[in-house]
Design brief:
With 62 residues, this protein is an all-alpha fold. The chain is 61% helix and 0% strand. It is built from 1 helix and no strands.
Length: 62
């Protein structure tokens, strides 16, 4: 398998793409972990009896 000829800037180009890919992977991981934490926190609040305001109608009093 031959690599494309990227010229004298090949190392810069490959490094830039690798860094961008790493940042995207880290952001996706951060989002997944945060989603799990937020979901668990909501479950804890639901178990403790605290409900979401969006679950009530406009005429309900807290």
């Amino acid at each position: 398998m031959t690599m494309l000829s990227l010229g004298p800037y090949a190392s810069f180009i490959v490094t830039s793409y690798a860094a961008a890919a790493l940042v995207v992977v880290l952001l996706i991981g951060w989002i997944v972990i945060d989603h799990r934490n937020q979901t668990e926190r909501l479950r804890e609040l639901d178990r403790s009896g605290i409900t979401r305001r969006s679950g009530r109608s406009a005429t309900d009093r807290p």
